[in-house]
Amino acid sequence: MNKIKGVIFDLDGVIVDTAKFHFLAWKKLANGLGFDFTELQNEELKGVSRVRSLEKILEWGNTSLSEDEFREKMAVKNDNYLSYITTLTSEDILPGVSKIIDFLSEENIPIALGSASKNARPILKKTGLLEKFQAIVDGNDVSKAKPDPEVFNIAAEKIGVAPENCLVFEDSVAGVQAANIAGMISVGIGEKEVLHEADYIFSSFEEIEEEFLKKLLTT
């Protein structure tokens, strides 16, 4: 196994749980179009772009929109989502995340963000983590969605670390697959049954011991 020299974090569901805000924003939009949107359907949108998410929601609601209406609804959804994330604070960082980020900083391991979210910077700023990251790659920087490895490859390049020397923390199947395709070490945060393709799996960051990371940093 290659020595880890850089670490890339996904955002939603890894550093903060903004899935609940996406759910509320999409549900409000769907209800406005005359149909419902469930939490189970929201799970299917993890790691999916905003455009594809709206396409899927319209399919579920058996509804179609003109190009102009489609763009308008995407903007409405994002405005609603942004109104929810304005309430974020450092208290919303998921348990155990700050400890791992601080450990990596102490070890002088560069940290990057690799997320499909186009709101990554305001979220990191609200939670007080923005200055912890040496590079941020989000939905504004990529043209291909996970499982395409583009977002992680750009992140690795920005921190000057070869893909094979990068570790990725992910909570989605598509994200784990993207890390694997890039040749990076994938660490799934979530359920083993779902993230079984990951090299390592933990239910949360609280389960990750510093010794585990130290071993990967020195192997």
CATH class category name of the largest domain: Alpha Beta
Q: Helical percent range? A: 40-55%
* Count, helices: 9
The average pLDDT value, as a whole number, equals 94
Number of domains: 2
Read across the widest sheet, the strand sequence of neighbours is 3-2-1-4-5-6
- Taking Cα atoms only, what radius of gyration do you get, to the nearest Å? 17 Å
CATH topology of the largest domain: Rossmann fold
CATH homologous superfamily descriptor of the largest domain: HAD superfamily/HAD-like
Show unreliable segments. none
Task: Report the sheet-strand fraction.
Answer: 5-15%
Distance between the termini: 7 Å
Short description:
With 219 residues, the protein is α/β, with parallel strands linked by helices.
Describe this structure in words.
- With 219 residues, this protein is of the alpha/beta class.
- It contains 9 helices and 6 strands.
- Strands 3-2-1-4-5-6 form a 6-stranded parallel β-sheet.
- α1 packs across α4.
- The longest helix has 19 residues, at 67-85.
What is this structure's SSE topology?
Layout: E1 6-9, H1 19-32, H2 39-43, H3 50-60, H4 67-85, H5 97-106, E2 111-114, H6 120-126, E3 135-137, H7 150-158, E4 166-170, H8 173-181, E5 185-189, E6 200-202, H9 210-218
Parallel strand pairs: 1-2, 1-4, 2-3, 4-5, 5-6
Core attributes:
219 residues; alpha/beta; Rossmann fold; DNA polymerase, domain 1; six-stranded parallel β-sheet; 9 helices; 6 strands; elongated
